[in-house]
Amino acid sequence: MQNQPKMFDKVLIANRGEIALRIIRACQELGVKTVMVHSTADSDSMPVHLADESVCIGGPTPKESYLNMRAIMSAADVTHVDAIHPGVGFLSENENFAKMTLEHGFNFIGPSPEHIVLMGDKSTAKSTMQRLGVQTIPGSAGEIESEEAALKQAIDIGMPVLIKASSGGGGKGMKVAYDEADVLQAYRLARTEAKTNFGRDQVYMEKYLETPRHIEFQIIADKFGHVVFLGERDCSVQRNHQKIWEEAPAPLLTEKQRAKVGAELARAIRKLEYVGVGTVEMLLEKDKFYFMEMNTRLQVEHTITEMVTGIDIVKEQIRVAAGFPLSFTQKNVTLKGHAIECRINAEDPQTFFPSPGTITHYLPPGGLGIRVDSHVFGGYVVPSYYDSMIGKLIAYGDTREECLARLRRALNEYVISGVSTIIPLHMEIAQSKDVIEAKYNTHWLENNIDILLKGG
Fold first, then answer.
1. Do 397 and 286 sit in the same domain of this protein?
2. What pLDDT, in 10s, does the model give residues 152-186?
3. Given 22, 297, 343, 406, which residue is catalytic?
4. Which of 99, 184, 374, 404 could form a disulfide with 113 if both were Cys (CB 3.0 to 4.6 A apart)?
5. Can 131 be counted among the known catalytic residues?
């Protein structure tokens, strides 16, 4: 008789901030105990206080703590956990960390190291999805090894082109060349940024789409070959290739488009025998979808998919990692209403410089249809060592119009004093005619930022 799956007794969370708190809450609802590892800078954080146990693993910098794989393994050993959840960022897409977790006898709440490698390298991921029948952006067959090859490839593809780091994300190592004179400089800069940020200087090239929308599909798969897509999110409102506003479902996308692309991606992921949550990021231009990359982890913006599907993605992710089958099928997934997430960053809304410091007053908004995922509180010190996001404001409504109205109300209610935030920018975005009419693309914010910062 086949062994029945058993839920984990204790999970170590190798992350920080709002995502760590989100995972703690999911574990509590599953009856799973939690261990928080933390840096010296996060000793007084809310996740540390709410976890069942906590272990300080190093100094304030990520290298000393959240990227310190040996320290994390030691903490897992001494606290006798069953599994490690990597959260988002830091080591969440590091194949060596996933491999080390398994070698130490712990379950990794994420895909296999092999799948992290396969989809983590953007060039390899692109060729893999091409082989599985998914349309990709025209570009180089693999990595570009020389300046001469870069120039030849750019001429073959046609201007403009985008040179991208094979590893990493967040807009680092990405350079656009609009003519042949730009290509060599863009190639050199992209390689330098890639080396600095990701430790590898490999880059590849693809056609630069001029008015695309960034549409991503949420996928979840279990160990029994069941793959389900949970609709899509429009993440086109970006600054420097970094998302700050996301919507689900994607405005203007038809049910026919959603079903067709979602089913196509689910088939491809099934062929890969992938297990866990994943997000397939696509670009949409002139009614054509192109594969861009796949994130083999939980996404920051998973919240809005939860709101419109009613499915707790984090709990389901943990269940799948423990060996349980998905608790639903594709037929059970229905999208209801509309949700928007605003990333609340501790940054100056004019310059976007980080704004670390002490939060003197904190009053999150409330009311029907409003959700705030945040780890901060009055008196909390925003460290200077980590990403500037200190929370996420999520609005939900039966219609997009109702959702936007609730979002505007919530943004007006939100009080954070002591540090600067980009809440004023979100208020302008939420009132913009283009956004109200869903007439935006990935370049919209950068093209309109000066007008928005002046108050419309």
1. yes
2. 999 999 899 999 888 766 667 889 999 988 999 99
3. 297
4. 99
5. no
